[in-house]
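Per reviewer request, we include the raw input and output of the structure prediction for the construct analysed in the revised manuscript.
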Amino acid sequence: MGLQKHINLFNYALDSVFAHKSRTIAITASLMIAIMVLGSVAFLTDGLEQEAELSASFAPDITIQYLQGGRQVPIPLSYTQDITRIADVDIVPRAWGYIYHHNKLYTIMGIDVRRMPIPKEIGFAISSGRFLEPNDSGKALIGNSFARTFGIRAGERLQLYDQKMKPYEYTVAGIFDAKVQLYTADLIVIPIEDAIKFLEMDNDHATDLCVYLRDPAQTIAVATKISNQLPNLRVLTRQVLRDALLAAYGARSGFVSVVWFILLIAVVLIAWNHTSAVSTETRREVGILKALGFSITDILEVRLLECIILGLFSASVGIFLSILFDVYLGAPVISDFMLGWASVYPEFPLPVMIKLDTVATLYAVAVFPLLLGSLTPSWYSAIEEPDVAIRGV
């Protein structure tokens, strides 16, 4: 009998949602917009954070940069000897910089093929052609997105221009695919000797040094020794890079969430207003229900069920719209803000990630504000005397 009573109350609450169309439309429309904004930011943030963690996992154990006047400048290769005297490590120099190619910003990176880890250890998978070999010169590796954008295949020629608009030609040795699209969509890999020439660097300098430890558990200890004995170097562990990337995306999502917070407050106020401004018809309805034997608890339960129905429906539609917005529309405006450099960065599939705990949170923030905004007005409506409510005085 008790279960049937709750079923009847649910059916009545569902009918009430459809009966009060203006209230339903006002609450669901505003709540759907709020959930769509929050969901879009949350799914994109989760995807970016996953990309950041993956990229950090493929980074060297320690990255070392040379500072001059607080700014990074090319590091002399003589520091490799100083570092190896401090700790028994493998050091791989890199030379990299940025170039404009068809009005987009790309990263050209030179690696020491003889000393670098094997491709799979840094997240590279060759989908066409081959990886760079120790004796290669004038060869290049490009990512799948770059190859698709410009219609380039393995074995074809690629022409790039340095900062003085001097042309350099490279043969595409291979096309790679990587798990981390965020940091490889713009990547062009060439031998370090070619990169030093292209970037007009001295042969005895590199952009930074990648340090690989035989025992990764000693990373912090080794990094501390290097930092203490060579204070003019910036020593970045893999964990530091990961934390910096996560902090950057977390801060940006926080700014966008402020907009969502404002929208959510608006939803609470709308729910409060519509529940407080009880019309004569609604008051008469409550009076009739009480006259028919409905208790205050039953009426509050009906209002509670109405909030849950409105919240779940609005959240479901809002989540669906946020997925469409991120996946199929590319999250315009929001993605530009989250990525920062999107106006000059090459296009790539946005890293959207849908986590169950994020979805659960979206449903929770859709239902609880409605309960908060409706609880007090519903209580005052429920405790009103039946005869007063029916007469509407």
